[in-house]
Amino acid sequence: MERSTRLCPHLRGGHVVLRARRVVPAAISGMLYKPTRDGLAPAAATIAHDDPRIRWLRAAQLHMELGDYDVIHHGHMIITGSGWRGTMGDRQGRP
Q: How does pLDDT run across 40-84, given as a tens digit for each residue?
């Protein structure tokens, strides 16, 4: 997590760590191209994952919907080579 906050400017202002049990695609951001008489007209857009215009989107970011999650407190995380796992006192995501 320290590496992520060091490398990502969006996380430096603050962040929350979640353990999600259900994750599904919700939306996609990128450049949406609309066919016109003069060619393709690009515009920045965020559309739903199941929007039929998705074939005209040059994707840049996938937005996920998180469900059934716990907030993980930074002091209860153990960093390992393959990721992290909560401590024994953190079985429900609580101290």
A: 999 999 999 999 999 999 999 999 998 888 888 766 655 443 344
The pairing of strands 17-36 and 57-72 is: antiparallel
Q: Are 23 and 69 in contact (CB under 8 A)?
A: no
The pTM assigned to this predicted structure is 0.61
What b-and-e string marks burial along 59-82, b requiring 16 or more CB atoms within 10 Å of the CB?
eeeeeeeeeeebebeeebbeeeee
Q: Where are the beta strands (DSSP E) in 1-95?
A: 17-36, 39-48, 57-72, 77-80, 83-86
Q: Are 46 and 63 in contact (CB under 8 A)?
A: yes
